[in-house]
């Protein structure tokens, strides 16, 4: 078990010492170095999972307090054990939906812009990545592309409910009802899907990731 | 001294008289009664013996309150004793027979000396025997017999009332009557069914009723009240119940026979049956058991009657049960059921008629509802058939499911007919005016009101104006008015009901519209009443418009045009129509139009105030105060707010601004006047030096707008440029009056077209036309009245603003409901919000969801963690 001093020493390897506000945190550069040390591609899922596991509140930023708490909770003492913990969390997503849901919702907070919404362009990139190219999310991305510039952002409510939608409908959208409280964006999505039926769903039974 | 009645001579004489004089008569009577009852006279004790026994028998008893028991050897304690026997003799006789010991139940000796003698009571069976003697053998079948029984019983009971308890008399009479009535019932049942049975039943009841009346009257002293009811109850039990079913079936058979012959109008038969059936349930019969609504009558009489009716209608309509014959079936069944009901009113009691109606309705209407409803949807071209269906369905009692499909079909018919028959835009607008001018609105509204009247007449004729059908009519018209197919698919985007109706009000209230002029000509004295009446008619259609908020926005736009251009028929009428619209659309939706009318009142006051402070050199000015935000939708954006106006006009403007600021100085409202030159005009007098003719001397009266006035002032007023200009280039004019060059060119072209200004073709400069000549004294070139026509963009802008306003209203309604309930299901919240705003518009699901999205994003509400359909209010 690593001591607090050893964890702080580990943290200091990536800490941003150039900050004027005196906060002890790992900045984007430090987080990039950490991912490199863990041999994670920045285009992959793992950096996001790492952020989530380290209790980060913003994208690419990890505070010492959350680092200390989460590293201790994971039982990580060095980069190798930390990598193992992150990989285990990724593999657990397929069986533990609550855990995945927490991660999915946290991703919105990482990716949102100043107006508390997520840009559609960002969503189109992130959704296939974090959902392992689940058929519904892929269809949704295509729907967003079809909307063009009139659809610029997504709200947190829409983002969160998209995951619930993926578990409520089948490839034919037969479980969908406009009478329910789905956002109007999903009603439009439903109409679009009916007009543009997919030739074959990739996988209708598996849950995301 | 006379002898005692107990003297031997008296007794001897009495016995002699009984034997020789009364005895033969008594014997003869007993023989007669026995012969009638067919019993052996020998078994009947002769009255003489009974009477003799009565003289000698005395009954010993005890009045001791304790239940006394006697020794076995002295059980028959009564002894015969002559009246003349002395006490000593009795005592000796007692001694001879041994001592009598009286004991109680426990064996305790109460008396050893002898029994206690008590008052003598005549034997009870004595009276019974006497009454039996009187009544034995009576099988009365006539009223006379009943009366004789009654008299005899009455006589004997009077004599025996001291000896027989009232209850005993009652029991005895009841027992006797029961026995007698059982025999009557047996005889009735043995009779031939049909008319003889009915007649006998009626006759028996009448006899018995009179006899019971007489009997109860004569016994009332002896037995008290209630005798008659008891006897009636006996009749009900003994005769009515066993016989009524037979009588009823006989009556039904008679009715059936008559029905087969094609009529039942025989008055004698009717009368006889009436009598019988009226007695089927005597008033004293027990109440019908609960939970058995048809009661005994259904079982005894109505049931066979109803069966016969059903059989009859069935046989008449059996050939019309095929799917293609529903219309004929409806017609025939309507007629047959009507006949049966009229027939039943003659034969059945009122409550039974209702029961029969239920039976027939269930059998012939409720059983064929689907086919009748399907056929009814095709019957709207024939009112008679439609009425038949309505009458038929109305027979199915308290069944909404029976009538509702017909109402739905009526609603669908109204909607479809209105959409299909609505004339095209070309037909409604024969003058060929543009759609934007809304000139066709008059014909369209007149046609819709006529359509409403036609359907109302249909509802009255076919459905008796039943409220359900009136509501269906309005619902159908509402559906048509709010349909996207209204006025045809091509024009649906250009002309929708809110805009159409607003346009109609515009035509009605615009002083120079064809409709308004026509009404003024037709009603020279009651012009305003005529307009109000028309407006009230149009309100019927306004009520059916779902988007009343859009209606009011279009109304507001047209009102602004009327008020700005002074083309309103009357301010009073404007206020009256707005007052009519307010309860319909809600006070919040008429706020703007009411405020606009208030602006006009303020403007009038301002003008009056200005007039009162008018000096001789001042201009006669009239102003309109248009509050910012109320009118901006209707106004052309100001192109030159800094226009330099002529000196005289400028002074008037300053004075008006002063008056306005004084008026609002106390309120500190920060109000500021901004002149709308595009809507200003002035009347000026122009003189042209080389003009010839009569008018040239007096000058021409020119009505010019503010821009034209400013341009003309450059040529006529030396104060503008230091000296009156001869020729000016347009650019110079633009700089001098600070007016946009495009506007200057527009106004110059108007002035040149009117001939007031002329252009130098070489330099392009303009100058006054000194040789101006015109036949008209008054020339209007202001163009203010020629306001820009409302374009499709204007309409779209109005709709867009209405949609935006709806979003805000839905958002507010959601917040109000969430605050009240703190947690609500999606569907429930939607229904509550819809109910809140339904008077003004229908909530679209997409708008509701967008409002929800907006509120969740703002963290005013959130979704429940485990159920996204439930919203929670975030405090």
List the defining traits of the structure above:
heterodimer; A: two-stranded antiparallel ribbon; 10 helices; B: 875 residues; mainly alpha; three-stranded mixed sheet; 11 strands; 61% helix; DCN1-like protein 5 (chain A)
Q: How are the elements arranged and paired?
A:
The complex is a heterodimer of chains A (209) and B (875).
Chain A: H1 4-12, E1 25-26, H2 28-37, H3 46-53, E2 62-63, H4 64-74, H5 79-92, H6 97-111, E3 118-119, H7 120-130, H8 135-147, E4 153-154, H9 156-168, H10 184-195
Antiparallel strand pairs in A: 1-2, 3-4
Helix pairs in contact in A: 1-4, 3-5, 6-9, 7-8
Chain B: H1 8-37, H2 47-56, E1 68-70, H3 87-97, E2 102-104, E3 109-111, H4 124-135, H5 143-160, H6 166-190, H7 195-223, H8 227-260, H9 267-278, H10 295-317, H11 326-347, H12 350-364, H13 369-376, H14 383-394, H15 400-421, H16 425-428, H17 441-463, H18 467-481, H19 497-509, H20 514-522, H21 527-542, H22 548-564, H23 571-585, H24 591-612, H25 647-664, E4 681-686, H26 694-698, E5 700-705, H27 706-716, H28 718-721, H29 730-737, H30 741-754, E6 757-759, E7 766-768, E8 778-780, H31 792-821, E9 823-825, H32 826-837, H33 845-857, E10 861-864, E11 867-873
Parallel strand pairs in B: 5-8
Antiparallel strand pairs in B: 1-2, 2-3, 4-5, 6-7, 9-11, 10-11
Helix pairs in contact in B: 4-5, 5-7, 6-7, 6-8, 7-8, 7-9, 8-10, 10-11, 10-12, 11-12, 11-14, 13-14, 14-17, 15-18, 17-18, 17-19, 19-21, 19-22, 20-21, 21-23, 22-24, 22-31, 24-25, 29-30, 31-32, 31-33
How would you characterize the overall build of this protein?
The complex is a heterodimer of chains A (209) and B (875). With 209 residues, chain A is mainly alpha-helical. Chain A is built from 10 helices and 4 strands, in the order H-E-H-H-E-H-H-H-E-H-H-E-H-H. In chain A, helix 3 (46-53) packs across helix 5 and helix 6 (97-111) packs antiparallel against helix 9. Chain A is elongated. The relative contact order of chain A is 0.10. Chain B is mainly alpha-helical and 875 residues long. Chain B has 33 helices and 11 strands. In chain B, strand 2 and strand 3 form a beta hairpin. In chain B, helix 19 packs antiparallel against helix 21, helix 20 (514-522) packs across helix 21 (527-542) and helix 22 runs parallel beside helix 24. Residues 40-85, 134-141, 262-267 and 279-300 of chain B have low confidence and may be disordered. At the A-B interface, helix 9 and helix 10 of A face helix 33 and strand 11 of B.
């Amino acid at each position: 078990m690593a001591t607090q001093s050893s964890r702080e020493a580990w943290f200091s390897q990536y800490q941003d010492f150039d900050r004027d506000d005196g906060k002890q945190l790992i900045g984007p550069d430090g987080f990039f170095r950490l991912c490199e040390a863990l041999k994670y591609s920045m285009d992959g899922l793992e950096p996001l999972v790492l952020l989530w596991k380290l209790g980060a509140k913003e994208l690419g930023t990890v505070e010492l307090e959350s680092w200390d708490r989460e590293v201790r909770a994971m039982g990580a003492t060095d980069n190798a054990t930390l990598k193992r913990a992150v990989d285990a969390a990724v593999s657990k997503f397929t069986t533990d939906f609550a855990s995945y849901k927490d991660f999915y919702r946290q991703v919105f907070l990482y990716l949102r812009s100043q107006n508390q919404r997520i840009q559609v362009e960002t969503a189109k990139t992130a959704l296939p990545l974090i959902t392992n190219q689940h058929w519904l999310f892929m269809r949704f991305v295509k729907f967003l592309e079809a909307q063009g510039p009139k659809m610029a952002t997504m709200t947190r409510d829409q983002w969160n409910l998209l995951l619930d939608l993926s578990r409520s409908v089948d490839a034919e959208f037969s479980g969908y009802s406009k009478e329910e409280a789905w956002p109007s964006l999903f009603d439009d999505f439903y109409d679009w899907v009916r007009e543009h039926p997919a030739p074959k769903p990739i996988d209708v039974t598996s849950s995301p990731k | 001294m006379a002898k005692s009645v107990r003297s031997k001579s008296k007794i001897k004489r009495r016995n002699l008289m009984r034997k020789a004089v009364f005895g033969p008569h008594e014997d003869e009577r007993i023989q007669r009664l026995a012969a009638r009852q067919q019993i052996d006279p020998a078994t009947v004790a002769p009255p003489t013996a009974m009477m003799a026994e009565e003289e000698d028998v005395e009954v010993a008893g005890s009045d001791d309150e304790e239940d006394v028991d006697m020794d076995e050897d002295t059980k028959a304690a009564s002894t015969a004793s002559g009246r003349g026997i002395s006490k000593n003799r009795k005592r000796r006789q007692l001694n001879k027979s041994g001592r009598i010991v009286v004991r109680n139940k426990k064996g305790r000796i109460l008396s050893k000396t002898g029994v206690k003698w008590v008052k003598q009571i005549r034997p009870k069976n004595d009276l019974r025997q006497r009454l039996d003697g009187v009544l034995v053998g009576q099988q009365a079948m006539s009223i006379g017999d009943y009366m004789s029984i009654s008299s005899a019983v009455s006589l004997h009971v009077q004599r025996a009332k001291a000896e027989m308890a009232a209850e005993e008399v009652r029991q005895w009479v009841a027992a006797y009557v029961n026995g007698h009535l059982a025999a009557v019932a047996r005889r009735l049942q043995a009779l031939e069914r049909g008319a003889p049975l009915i007649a006998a039943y009626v006759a028996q009841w009448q006899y018995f009723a009179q006899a019971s009346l007489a009997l109860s009257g004569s016994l009332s002293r002896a037995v008290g009240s209630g005798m008659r009811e008891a006897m009636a109850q006996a009749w009900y039990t003994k005769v009515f119940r066993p016989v009524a079913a037979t009588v009823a079936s006989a009556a039904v058979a008679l009715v059936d026979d008559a029905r087969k012959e094609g009529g039942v109008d025989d008055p004698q038969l009717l009368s006889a049956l009436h009598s019988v059936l009226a007695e089927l349930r005597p008033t004293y019969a027990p109440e019908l058991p609960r939970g058995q609504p048809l009661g005994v009558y259904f079982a005894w009489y109505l049931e066979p009657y109803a069966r016969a009716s059903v059989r009859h209608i069935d046989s008449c309509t059996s050939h019309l049960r095929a799917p293609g014959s529903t219309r004929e079936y409806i017609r025939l069944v309507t007629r047959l059921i009507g006949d049966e009901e009229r027939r039943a009113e003659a034969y059945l009691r009122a409550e039974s008629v209702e029961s029969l109606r239920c039976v027939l309705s269930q059998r012939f209407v409720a059983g064929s509802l689907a086919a009748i409803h399907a056929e009814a949807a095709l019957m709207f071209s024939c009112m008679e058939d439609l009425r038949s269906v309505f009458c038929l369905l109305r027979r199915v009692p308290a069944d909404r499911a029976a009538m509702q499909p017909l109402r739905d079909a009526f609603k669908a018919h109204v909607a479809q007919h209105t959409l299909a028959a609505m004339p095209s835009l070309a037909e409604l607008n024969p003058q060929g005016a543009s759609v934007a001018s809304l000139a066709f609105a008059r014909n369209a509204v007149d046609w819709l009101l006529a359509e409403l009247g036609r359907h109302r007449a249909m509802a009255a004729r076919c459905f008796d104006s039943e409220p359900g059908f009136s509501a269906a009519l309005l619902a159908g018209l509402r559906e048509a008015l709010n349909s996207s197919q209204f006025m045809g698919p091509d024009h649906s985007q250009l002309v929708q009901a809110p805009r159409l109706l607003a346009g109609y009000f515009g035509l009605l209230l615009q002083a120079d519209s064809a409709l308004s002029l026509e009404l003024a000509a037709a009603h020279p004295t009651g012009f305003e009443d005529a307009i109000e009446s028309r407006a009230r008619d149009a309100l019927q259609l306004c009520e059916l418009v779902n988007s009343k908020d859009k209606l009011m926005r279009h109304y507001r736009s047209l009102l602004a045009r009327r008020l700005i251009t002074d083309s309103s028929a009357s301010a009073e009428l404007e206020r009256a129509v707005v007052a009519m619209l307010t309860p319909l659309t809600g006070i919040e939706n008429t706020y703007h139009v009411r405020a606009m009318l208030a602006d006009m009142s303020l403007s009038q006051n301002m003008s009056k105030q200005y007039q009162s402070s008018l000096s001789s050199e001042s201009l006669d000015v009239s102003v309109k105060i248009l509050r910012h935000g109320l009118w901006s939708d209707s106004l052309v954006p100001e192109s030159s707010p800094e226009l330099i106006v002529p000196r005289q006009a400028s002074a008037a403007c300053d004075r008006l601004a002063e008056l306005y600021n004084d008026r609002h100085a106390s309120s500190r409202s920060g109000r500021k006047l901004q002149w709308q030159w595009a809507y200003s005009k002035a009347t000026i007098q122009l003189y042209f030096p080389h003009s010839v003719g009569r008018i040239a001397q007096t000058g021409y009266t020119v009505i010019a707008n503010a821009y034209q006035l400013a341009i003309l002032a450059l040529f006529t007023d030396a104060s503008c440029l230091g000296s009156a200009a001869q020729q000016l280039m347009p650019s110079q004019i633009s700089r001098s009056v600070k007016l946009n060059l495009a506007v200057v060119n527009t106004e110059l072209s108007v002035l040149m077209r009117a001939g007031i200004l002329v252009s130098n073709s070489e330099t392009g400069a303009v100058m006054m036309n000194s040789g101006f000549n015109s036949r008209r004294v008054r020339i209007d070139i202001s163009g203010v009245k020629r306001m820009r026509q409302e374009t499709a963009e204007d309409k779209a802008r109005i709709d867009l603003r209405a949609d935006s306003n709806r979003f805000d209203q839905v958002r507010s309604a959601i917040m109000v409901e969430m605050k009240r309930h703190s947690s609500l299901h999606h569907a429930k919240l939607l229904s509550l919000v819809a109910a809140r705003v339904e008077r003004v518009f229908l909530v679209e699901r997409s708008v509701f969801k967008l409002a929800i999205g907006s509120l969740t994003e703002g963290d005013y509400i959130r979704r429940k963690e485990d159920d996204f359909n439930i919203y929670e209010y975030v405090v």
